[in-house]
Specification:
By secondary structure, this protein is an alpha+beta fold. The chain is about 20% helix and about 40% strand.
């Protein structure tokens, strides 16, 4: 029997679709086995939210500092044009107790060494830990800080992300911003704790992360560190959440002349897990509004932090003062990026 022109011979699976084998993923699992993929996606989203929040907060803080510096420069310039009896000298007053450190190697792994050289307590943007990076490996690296704390209080977003090419050295500084130090009522540095992540800038692969490193200054053991920020007493704080070793206190709503309104919190981590705390489902006076907050805490550490609401978002919703805030806290394990605690919606009244 002759075939028709379009009566081509079809592969068995095409002739009988019912006989096609069930589709599988590249790993051999069936589409129904997607739970692990969903969990990986959830972790990636949590990590992306944290990075975005940290980048936005770092940008806001640095922008605020630059703005204030411009005002100071203009003011000083105008004062210098007067007829005062200025002898032409400037005296730098160090109000931080002149803390110093001895030169010490912080880590030396995989042909990459980082040495702490000195502490600059009167730097332009805050206080700086001056370091030397020596890259004796055969690949470029970026060095970043993880989980920094001063005097037992976590410090958000130290400014530090230098690059070192193969066989090259790089002198740089880890900057602890004045705004973060003031928020945590830190004037004098007694101890610094931090770890480092070493990243290949071409592949963005994390090559390795160090253990937590402790640096003691010349004033270690002499600093009496208050847990709350300046002007805040223990009776002013209000506990709004406590579960599984994590405690969150609400302090106050504060006007920010540059950005808008801050909701101020004090948090402690009495668990054995390093975490980051993020906000979700936030509303002010009944209006949903996005805030900026991502607070890291190592085990046994606490922090003062703020949830920042931008002025433009407040204006869109006609919010001048806050009477009520609804918020959910997500507490995420920074090692696995799994959400280990998600609170109910919490209502905070002003």
């Amino acid at each position: 029997m002759k075939r028709r022109p379009n009566d081509r011979k079809r592969p068995p699976n095409e002739r009988n679709p019912a006989r096609r084998p069930a589709s599988r993923t590249s790993s051999g699992s069936r589409p129904s086995d997607r739970e692990s993929d969903d969990r990986r996606k959830s972790r990636a989203e949590a990590r992306a939210r944290q990075r975005a929040a940290q980048k936005r907060k770092r940008f806001l803080v640095i922008g605020a500092v630059v703005f204030l510096l411009l005002i100071i420069i203009i003011t000083v310039s105008q004062c210098g044009n007067g007829d005062g009896n200025d002898n032409g000298t400037n005296e730098v007053i160090n109000e931080t107790g002149d803390a110093t450190i001895t030169e010490q190697v912080l880590f030396d792994e995989q042909d990459i060494r980082l040495t702490a050289l000195s502490l600059s307590t009167g730097a332009l943007l805050g206080q700086e830990l001056n370091v030397l990076i020596e890259n004796n490996s055969d690949q470029p690296v970026i060095v970043q800080v993880r989980g920094a704390s001063i005097n037992g209080l976590m410090i958000d977003a130290p400014v530090f992300s230098p690059e070192a090419n193969p066989g090259a050295n790089n002198n740089d500084s880890i900057t602890f911003l004045s705004s973060e130090l003031e928020l945590n009522n830190i004037e004098t540095i007694g101890t610094i704790e931090l770890s480092f992540a070493i990243i290949n800038p071409e592949t963005f692969e994390t090559l390795f992360e160090t253990n937590l490193i402790t640096i003691e200054t010349s004033l270690a053991g002499q600093v009496e560190q208050a847990a709350l920020g300046e002007g805040q007493q223990a009776q002013d704080r209000r506990q709004v959440f406590s579960q599984d070793g994590f405690t969150i206190y609400f302090i106050a709503f504060e006007d920010d002349d540059i950005w808008g309104i801050n909701a101020r919190f004090y948090m402690s981590n009495d668990s054995d897990i390093p975490v980051t705390v993020q906000s979700q489902d936030v509303s002010l006076n009944g209006f949903m509004i996005a805030g900026i907050m991502s607070a890291d805490m190592q085990p046994g550490r606490s922090t003062n932090t703020t949830l920042t609401f931008l002025e433009e978002d407040l204006e869109i919703n006609g919010i001048e003062t806050v009477s009520t805030m609804d918020i959910r806290f997500n507490i995420i394990n920074v090692d696995t990026w799994e959400t280990i605690v998600s609170s109910d919606i919490i209502t905070i009244t002003n």
